[in-house]
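Sat 14:20. Reprocessing the chain from the morning session after the first attempt stalled halfway. Input below, unchanged.
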Amino acid sequence: MEKNKLRKKTLALLASLDKAEHDEKSSKLAELLFETEEWKRAHFVGVTLARYPEIGTEAIIRKAWQSGKTVAIPETIYPGHKMQFREYKRGDQLIKKKFDLFEPSEEAKLVPKNQLSLLIVPGVVFNSAGYRIGFGGGFYDRYLTDFLGDTISLAFYEQVNEELVVEDHDIPVQKVLVV
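Finished this time. Tokens:
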């Protein structure tokens, strides 16, 4: 199935999930993440500020802060569809940018790519080899080209599809946790 169709179909399926079920599954995924060696050894964690129907990331961010980890969230750069990460602390002011995404201000400390120990990579559709269909901008595939840290994605079973067509520019994550 074509990427755009598969993306739309999966997003519609996620949006149709009961909110309580969605929240419970997001919680279970966070707990699975916290048990991984990648999480335990990470000092700098890159993670998005999720928007429904994406898998929730609030619990992940809170746990990282409680554990003394540095949290970094993405800032998109146009033109070029590039991305960089900036430190995100409790109470930081966020800016609503393109697609109504909240991003860090330019005053937030830039976190160099080589400092991120763990990157939680979002996506819409995943296969068992770690390949993914994102939200269509290609930001993470560009960022991952020379990323050396650990990469993990979180997915509901509804997001796993082995028919996902892999393209030359696609870069897999190292691990996909699924509930």
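The CA atoms of residues 95 and 123 lie 22 Å apart.
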